[in-house]
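Tokenise the fold.
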Amino acid sequence: MNYEGRWNTVKVDVVEGIAWVKFNRPEKRNAMSPTLNKEMIEVLEAVELDAEAQVLVLTGEGDAWTAGMDLKEYFREVDGGPEILQEKIRRDACRWQWQLLRMYAKPTIAMVNGWCFGGGFSPLVACDLAIAADEAVFGLSEINWGIPPGNLVSKAMADTVGHRQALYYIMTGETFTGQEAAQMGLVNKSVPRAELLDATRTLAGKLLQKNPVVLRAAKNGFKRCRELTWDQNEDYLYAKLDQAQLRDPEGGREQGLKQFLDDKAIKPGLQTYKR
């Protein structure tokens, strides 16, 4: 599907099964505005239904991933408005950054090409996987201008990095690099910026080889199980296993067992079954 020119603050291009979704406010370092939030809801819903798009990569135009919230449009231009307008703006932000992206039907990769600040941590953590440029700069600068981290940033940090590291950056507002983000587990790995695009394509290519129904059940099942008790997980994950088999049109379980046990054609510990 061709998305050229469909949105103003977001670019979408689908190439060889990968939907490249770019924040497109480079003059503002891709700061997230109410308009961008509204358009991201539309983008995620459109790409989710696009059969040509099997993996979604979220990145930024120019030298930034996103600088977080646009302070002028989020605060100065909204503070004096009706309360219902303020509530809608917050709701739109949470809807795409967390509710839609976190449990997305397709694999998602955050490709952090540059500056990633404040509210940008929510969609970063909501993505399934993340690769950053070594040179990328991360920061939770809210403390520097008089507020605690907004949206679900604190929850995102608490779920992803260690207690001490999260509080250190929340309380000091200091920045850290892509390499440090990888060391603390905020991203899966970092690479030199010149290698970032190729590294992301390689990772997306690995995901494209997997059975999409099983991949969705595996990733979303993992995210849900973190919120449940052991006993609840026993029921939930077995139900997820059964659901994946019932909804899988290519019969991945049967194919995998046949190719391994009968045909001796694959080694599941080292490779994906032949689709």
User: Anything to note?
Assistant: The CA atoms of residues 111 and 197 lie 8 Å apart. The beta strands are 10-15, 18-23, 55-60, 64-66, 108-112, 115-117, 129-133, 137-139, 175-177, 189-191. The chain has two domains: 10-208, 212-262.
